[in-house]
Backbone:
C-alpha cells in the first residue's frame, strides 16, 4: 500500500540563542527520522519527554525552520517554503490535535463559529447547515453544543470538539500529540473509541504518546523514539510483546499494569540498583544480544529482570 | 554573565545614540532660532549671519550632527548658546537635585506600597483592602500638577508647615516627592497586592503550609520575595520616568532639577543644553534599568544563567 | 448521615493511625457546593492506601481537608470525627495543632515545579524543616538536608544543596518534594498524584521510592491517583471516589479483580491493558457530573451505570460491607458480580 504520509531522513536541531552564536546547532532534536503511515492505519510514536516525538509532528507541519530531510504527502514532496497555494492541499489534508483540547478552540467564539470557519476552508456542495450536525455526530456530540463557548465543556467534550474542528477540513491524516494525556481514563477510553471509528473511514493517524498501553490498543505500527532517533519500529503487537531494544523493554516494564502485582516497583528498584538510568541507555539502534532479548521478553511477561 | 553585560552595554550605547540623534533633529526641526533669542530683535542681518557661522548653524543638518557626534565622543558636549557656559556643567549642577528627588520619591513609593500591598493581600476583602482599592482609583484620576497645587495650598499656605518652592530647606523635598509618589504608590500597592494574593493561593504556599511553616515565615521568606519581581520591574520603569519625566512637578514646585532646565533651554532653543540634558536623562534611565536587571537576577535565580 | 452504615474499609486489627468519619467539604458561596460528601475511612499505620477517582471527584479536597490545608475562606470542612494517633483534630478550619503539619504528616503534590520556591535554594527549602521544627542552626540543618537528598537517591546530594529548583528535572524535583515531606519521619505521607506529570520510567522510580520510604519509616501512605494500574501495583488498600462520595473500598487485589461497584469495573475496563492487547478498551458512557451536583436522593453514578434500576434514581445507596475486607455503596452489587465479567 502506498504511504499517505512519509518522512525520510528528517533531521532538526534547535538553534542555540546567544550574543555571538545565534544559529549554532545544539544536540539534534530529530536525527534521521523516517516514518510512514498508510490510509486507515495508526502509527504510534512513543517516547519520553525530550525524545523528539512532539518535535517530529511540528516538523511535519512545518513549524520548525531549517530542517533537513524529506516529507511526502500522498507521494508528493511537501515543500514548506512553497507558497500558500501549493501547500493548500497539505494544509487541509493534514490536521493536528493537541494534548490541551482547549488550545485549538477560540474561547471567545461559539462552537458554531469555530466549526463554520473551519468548514468554510474546504469547498463542499452541502450547506454548512447540513455539515455541522454531521460533524458533531461524527465525534459523538449533538447540536446543543453549537451555541455554547469552550468554557462550558469538560475536557473530554473539548477534545471531541477539537477533533470535530480538525475533521471539518476532511483531512486524510490526523497528527495527534498526546490527545488523551490530559483526560481521565474513562474519558480517554471514549476518545480512543472515537479514533478507532475514524480510522475505519480510511484516515491515517500519527498518534504520539508516552503511554504504550494506549498504543497497544489503537496503533497498527509503533516507532519508539529516544533522543531524537527512532530506535525501534514495527508492528505494534510485536514491539510490545518482543521489544528488541533495552529502552523499549524499560518503557514496557515501567508501564502501570493490572497484572503481576508489585512488578512495577520491583523493576524500578532493579533498574535503580543497576547503574543505568533510562536516560543513559545508549540510543544506538543496535540489535541486542540473545540474552537481552530473552530478558526483555521476560520483562514483558511481568517477570523480574535477572 | 560577561555575555550579559556586553549585550546590555551595547544596547545602552545604541539607546543613547538614538536619543541624541532624535533630539538633535527634533529640536532643529521645531520652529525658533537660538540666535534670534540671543541677539534680540535689534540684531542686524549681518550679525545674525555671523552668529550662525560662529555656532556652526549655517551648515547642513547632517554635517552639524557629524561634528556634534565627533565632539561628543571626545566628551565635548558643547556650550550653552545663551549663557556661554559648558552645557555639561549646567546639567551637572541640576542633576543632583533631580537625582535626589527621584531617589527619595522611589524609596518612598517602595517603602509604602510594598508593605501596604502585602497587608491588603493578607486581609483580602477586609476593610483596609476595600478602602485602599477605592482610594487608589481616585488618586490615579488626579493630575499631578493639580495635586501639587493642592499640597502647596494646604501645607504651605494654610498650615505653614512646609516650604512651597525651591530648595531652601531639606523639608522642601517633601511636597514634590509626595506629589510624585502618591499615584505611583496607588499603582504599586495594587500590583503588590494582586501578586501576593496569587502567590498566597499557589501550590508553593500550600506545600509550605503542609511543611508546617509558620505564616509569618511563609510571608517574609517566600511570598514577599516572589511578589517583588513584577513590582521591581514596574518600579524600574517608574524610576526612569521620575528622572526624565518629573518636568511638570519640578515646574510647579520650582524644583531646580533637570526638568526645569530642559523646559527653559527648550524655550531659548539652547540646542547644546537641550541635547546634553536629554543625553544625561537617557543615561540615567538606562543605568536604572541596568540596576533593575541586576536586582532581578539577584532575586530570581532562573535568570542567572548567562 | 450514614448512621449505622459500614465504615470504609472496615477497621483492621491494628488501631488506625487516622480515622475520618462523615467528612464533608463545601465550597462557600450563595449556593454552597458540596464537593466531598460524608466520607469515612481509617488509615492503618505502615500501609499504602490509594484514593482513586477522576478529576472533580473530590479526592484531592479530601486529602487537603484532613491535612488542614484548605483555605477556610473558600471551603467549609465538617464531619463527626477526625482522630490522628488517638487524638481528636478539629474540623472547624482552625490551624491544626503544632507539629501535625510537617512533623506528623507530609504532603507531596502533582507538578513539583510549582510547589517549590523558585527563588530559594533546594538546600534551604529542605533545611527549613529542621530549622523551624527542630530548632537547628543553618549549618546543621543544611547537613541534614544533604542527608535527606541522599535519602531520596539524588546523586551528589551535598553538591546540589546550593542549586535552585529550575536546575532539577521534573522527577528530581518530585524527589526534593518527597525529601521535604519525609524529613522529620512523619507517620503519614499524603502523595497527591505524585507522578502524573512524569515519564513512565520516572514514575516507576518515584513510586518505588515512596514504597521504600514507607517501609523504612513505617509510615502510612495515602496515594491519590486516577490510574488503576498505579493502584494495583503499589497500594495495599484502595478507595474509589466519585462525585464527592466513596463508592467502594477494600483490599486492592480483591477490588481490582472482583470489584462490586459498576463504576470500579468501568474504571478498570477503560484502561488500555498492556498485558492483554486483545481485551477491548471499554469506555464508561457519558461525562462525570459537575463537582457539587446535588443528587438529592439518588446514586450519583446512575446516569452512567449499566445496572441502574428504579431504586437508584430515588434512594441514596449506603455503604455496606459484604465481607470483612471490603465495602461497597451499591444496591445492585450482587447482580454486578454475577453478571459482569471482570
Residues:
Amino acid at each position: 500500500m502506498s504511504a499517505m504520509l512519509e518522512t525520510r531522513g528528517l533531521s532538526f536541531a534547535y538553534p542555540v540563542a546567544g550574543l555571538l552564536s545565534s544559529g549554532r546547532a545544539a544536540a539534534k532534536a530529530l536525527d534521521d527520522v523516517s516514518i510512514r503511515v498508510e490510509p486507515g492505519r495508526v502509527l504510534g510514536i512513543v517516547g519520553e519527554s525530550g525524545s523528539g516525538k512532539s518535535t517530529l509532528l511540528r516538523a511535519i507541519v512545518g513549524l520548525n525552520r531549517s530542517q533537513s530531510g524529506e516529507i511526502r504527502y500522498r507521494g508528493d514532496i511537501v515543500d514548506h517554503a512553497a507558497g500558500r497555494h501549493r501547500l493548500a492541499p497539505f494544509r487541509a489534508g493534514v490536521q493536528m490535535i493537541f494534548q490541551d483540547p482547549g488550545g485549538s478552540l477560540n474561547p471567545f467564539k461559539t462552537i458554531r463559529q469555530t466549526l463554520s470557519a473551519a468548514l468554510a476552508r474546504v469547498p463542499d456542495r452541502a450547506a454548512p447547515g447540513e455539515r455541522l450536525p454531521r460533524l458533531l455526530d461524527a465525534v459523538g456530540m449533538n447540536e446543543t453544543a453549537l451555541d455554547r463557548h469552550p468554557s462550558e465543556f469538560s475536557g473530554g467534550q473539548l477534545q471531541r470538539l477539537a477533533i470535530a474542528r480538525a475533521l471539518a477540513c476532511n483531512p486524510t491524516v490526523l497528527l495527534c500529540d498526546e490527545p488523551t494525556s490530559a483526560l481521565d481514563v474513562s474519558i480517554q477510553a471514549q476518545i480512543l473509541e472515537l479514533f478507532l471509528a475514524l480510522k475505519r473511514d480510511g484516515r491515517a493517524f500519527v498518534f504520539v504518546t508516552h503511554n504504550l498501553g494506549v498504543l497497544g490498543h489503537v496503533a497498527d505500527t509503533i516507532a519508539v523514539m529516544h533522543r531524537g532517533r527512532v530506535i525501534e519500529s514495527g508492528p505494534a503487537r510485536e514491539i510490545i510483546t518482543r521489544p528488541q531494544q533495552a529502552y523499549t523493554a524499560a518503557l514496557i516494564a515501567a508501564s502501570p499494569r493490572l497484572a503481576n502485582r508489585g512488578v512495577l516497583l520491583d523493576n524500578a528498584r532493579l533498574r535503580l540498583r543497576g547503574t543505568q538510568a533510562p536516560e543513559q541507555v545508549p540510543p544506538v539502534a543496535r540489535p541486542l544480544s540473545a540474552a537481552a532479548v530473552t530478558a526483555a521478553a521476560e520483562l514483558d511477561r511481568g517477570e523480574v529482570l535477572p | 554573565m560577561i555575555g550579559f553585560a556586553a549585550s546590555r552595554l551595547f544596547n545602552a550605547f545604541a539607546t543613547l545614540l538614538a536619543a541624541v540623534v532624535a533630539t538633535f533633529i527634533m529640536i532643529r526641526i521645531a520652529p525658533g532660532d537660538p540666535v534670534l533669542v540671543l541677539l534680540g530683535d535689534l540684531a542686524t542681518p549681518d550679525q545674525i549671519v555671523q552668529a550662525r557661522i560662529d555656532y556652526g548653524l549655517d551648515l547642513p543638518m547632517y554635517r552639524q550632527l557629524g561634528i556634534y557626534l565627533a565632539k561628543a565622543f571626545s566628551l565635548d558636549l558643547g556650550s550653552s548658546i545663551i549663557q556661554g557656559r559648558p552645557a555639561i556643567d549646567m546639567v551637572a549642577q541640576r542633576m543632583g537635585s533631580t537625582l535626589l528627588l527621584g531617589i527619595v520619591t522611589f524609596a518612598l513609593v517602595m517603602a509604602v506600597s510594598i508593605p501596604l500591598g502585602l497587608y491588603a493581600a493578607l486581609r483580602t476583602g477586609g476593610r483596609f483592602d476595600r478602602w485602599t482599592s477605592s482610594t487608589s482609583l481616585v488618586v490615579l484620576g488626579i493630575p499631578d500638577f493639580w495635586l501639587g497645587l493642592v499640597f502647596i495650598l494646604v501645607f504651605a499656605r494654610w498650615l505653614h508647615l512646609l516650604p512651597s518652592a525651591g530648595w531652601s530647606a531639606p523639608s522642601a523635598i517633601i511636597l514634590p516627592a509626595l506629589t510624585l509618589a502618591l499615584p505611583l504608590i496607588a499603582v504599586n500597592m495594587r500590583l503588590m497586592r494582586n501578586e501576593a494574593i496569587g502567590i498566597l493561593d499557589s501550590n508553593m504556599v500550600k506545600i509550605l503550609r503542609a511543611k508546617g511553616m509558620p505564616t509569618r515565615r511563609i510571608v517574609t521568606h517566600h511570598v514577599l520575595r516572589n511578589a517583588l519581581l513584577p513590582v521591581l520591574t514596574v518600579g524600574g520603569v517608574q524610576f526612569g520616568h521620575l528622572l526624565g519625566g518629573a518636568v511638570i512637578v519640578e515646574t510647579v514646585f520650582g524644583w531646580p532639577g533637570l526638568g526645569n532646565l530642559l523646559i527653559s533651554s527648550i524655550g531659548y532653543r539652547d540646542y547644546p543644553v537641550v541635547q546634553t540634558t536629554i543625553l544625561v536623562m537617557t543615561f540615567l534611565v538606562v543605568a536604572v534599568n541596568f540596576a533593575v536587571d541586576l536586582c532581578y537576577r539577584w532575586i530570581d535565580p532562573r535568570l542567572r544563567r548567562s | 448521615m450514614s448512621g449505622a452504615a459500614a465504615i470504609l474499609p472496615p477497621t483492621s486489627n491494628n488501631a488506625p493511625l487516622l480515622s475520618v468519619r462523615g467528612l464533608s467539604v463545601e465550597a462557600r458561596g450563595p449556593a454552597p457546593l458540596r464537593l466531598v460528601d460524608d466520607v469515612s475511612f481509617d488509615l492503618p499505620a505502615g500501609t499504602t492506601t490509594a484514593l482513586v477517582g477522576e478529576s472533580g471527584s473530590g479526592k484531592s479536597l479530601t486529602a487537603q481537608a484532613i491535612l488542614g490545608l484548605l483555605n477556610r475562606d473558600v471551603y467549609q470542612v465538617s464531619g463527626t470525627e477526625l482522630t490522628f494517633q488517638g487524638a481528636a483534630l478539629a474540623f472547624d478550619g482552625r490551624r491544626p495543632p503544632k507539629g501535625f503539619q510537617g512533623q506528623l504528616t507530609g504532603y507531596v503534590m502533582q507538578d513539583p515545579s510549582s510547589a517549590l520556591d523558585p527563588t530559594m535554594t533546594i538546600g534551604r527549602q529542605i533545611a527549613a524543616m529542621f530549622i523551624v521544627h527542630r530548632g537547628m542552626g543553618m549549618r546543621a540543618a543544611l547537613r541534614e538536608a544533604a542527608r535527606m537528598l541522599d535519602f531520596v537517591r539524588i546523586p551528589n546530594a551535598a553538591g546540589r544543596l546550593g542549586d535552585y529548583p529550575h536546575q532539577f528535572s521534573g522527577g528530581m524535583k518530585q524527589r526534593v518534594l518527597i525529601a521535604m515531606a519525609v524529613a522529620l519521619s512523619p507517620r503519614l505521607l499524603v502523595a497527591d498524584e505524585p507522578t502524573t506529570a512524569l515519564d513512565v520510567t520516572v514514575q516507576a522510580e518515584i513510586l518505588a521510592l515512596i514504597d521504600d520510604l514507607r517501609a523504612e519509616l513505617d509510615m502510612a501512605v495515602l496515594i491519590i491517583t486516577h490510574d488503576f494500574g498505579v493502584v494495583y501495583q503499589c497500594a495495599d488498600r484502595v478507595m474509589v471516589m466519585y462525585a464527592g462520595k466513596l463508592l467502594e473500598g477494600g483490599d486492592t487485589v480483591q477490588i481490582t479483580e472482583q470489584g462490586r461497584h459498576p463504576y470500579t469495573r468501568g474504571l478498570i475496563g477503560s484502561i488500555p491493558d498492556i498485558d492483554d492487547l486483545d481485551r477491548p478498551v471499554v469506555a464508561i458512557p457519558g461525562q462525570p457530573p459537575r463537582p457539587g451536583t446535588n443528587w438529592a436522593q439518588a446514586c450519583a453514578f446512575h446516569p452512567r451505570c449499566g445496572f441502574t434500576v428504579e431504586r437508584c434514581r430515588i434512594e441514596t445507596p449506603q455503604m455496606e460491607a459484604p465481607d470483612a475486607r471490603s465495602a461497597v455503596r451499591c444496591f445492585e452489587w450482587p447482580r454486578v458480580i454475577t453478571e459482569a465479567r471482570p
User: Anything to note?
Assistant: Chain C touches chain B at residues 64, 67-69, 71, 73, 98-103, 105-107, 109, 111, 114-121, 128-129, 132-133, 164, 166, 177, 180-181 (CB under 8 Å). The mean pLDDT of chain C is 90. The longest helix of chain C spans residues 200-217.
